[in-house]
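User: Show me a protein chain along with its predicted structure.
Assistant: Here is one chain, sequence first, then structure tokens.
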Amino acid sequence: MHSISSNFQYSYRQPCFPIVSRSVLCSQINFNIMDIDEYDFFYHRIALPPAFSKMVAKRRCEFLAGRICAQIALNQHDSSLCFDVGIDSDRSPCWPRGIIGSITHTSSVAAACIASTETHSNIGIDTESILSREVCASIASEILTTKELYLLKEKALPKELFVTLAFSAKESIFKAIYKDVGYIFGFDAAMMIEFNHHCMLFVLTKDLSVKWKAGDILNVGYQVVGEHVFTSMLVEQLVEN
């Protein structure tokens, strides 16, 4: 008989996302890529993802790390809540009723943020390792519009950092509004129009849904910590008078 234990190594970290709302709960860990098996998932009370047996070690660790963060955030919200964040039919995280959230990871950092649907309608977070010069050169034109490239020239930032921030911000936007839109949209759907200290402003360039229209302005917060960038988009519920 196999005694249930876990070899998965991780450590808690102070969340790096620029989120000031007390009603948004975040958790973050650092972890190591290693060979793990189903017992590591059982130990943390996390269901095996589909096609688990076909996952390489890196993907298994990233998935487990993200779900551990989700569990931590949910327990901060309600210590009696025992809920395994599964995978919805569109492969997005499946949260408990009344909760919205977002999960992100690199190969060494994972995080999750959640909030009640009473206070927030949309949440999207993302973290990325700063792109290398070679990768940046190969994908910059896919991520940035011509106008965004002009904005880059105005800012005293390394191109690798600017492109990484733009990429991460657009990932956060996608995660935040995907459920409202219902389909995958490209990087050109949102264009950066302003870049300030810890904040980027984007404008939607096309109608995406009834709720999200061309011309809508989106605010994405960011923070750079070491070799990682952290971005977040939050939308509070409208309070009717």
